[in-house]
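Q: Convert this sequence to structure tokens.
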Amino acid sequence: MSVDELWSLRALLIAVLTGKMSAEKAKIDRQLQQLGLGAAPNNSKKIPHARRPYPQVFPKYSNPAKPSETWAGRGKQPRWLTAQLRAGKKLDDFRIQTLPLSHSRLWKARLMLLPVWANGSSDRAWLDRVASVRRDAASIGDHGSFGPFVGN
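A:
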């Protein structure tokens, strides 16, 4: 084959492939429109990308001068914290104090019991939960009142 024949064959091949690609694109656009996902003819409407759900991050550090200013310990340090660190303070000076795990578990159990108690449930599962909360309270030395369902 000569070079001219090869060039004409290339032009023919490009024309055929372009036609097939546009036909396939039109077919896919019709299918997307039937599913309700199709974009506008000028492709101005974009499909949003789904983000991975991230757990909520609670703050670990607080500004003593303005307690509403907090930092979770991720990313860049806030200006109020960097200024205090430069002044010679330590990062632990700004840490938010939390309850020990057993106390927080106890309070969570108390809060879980409230809706059940309000419904007036008296089944065996309810009594088991009350007993487990009493055991938790006794194990951490909490002798406070749980309300009407714990007799001290």
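Confidence is low (pLDDT under 50) at residues 144-152.
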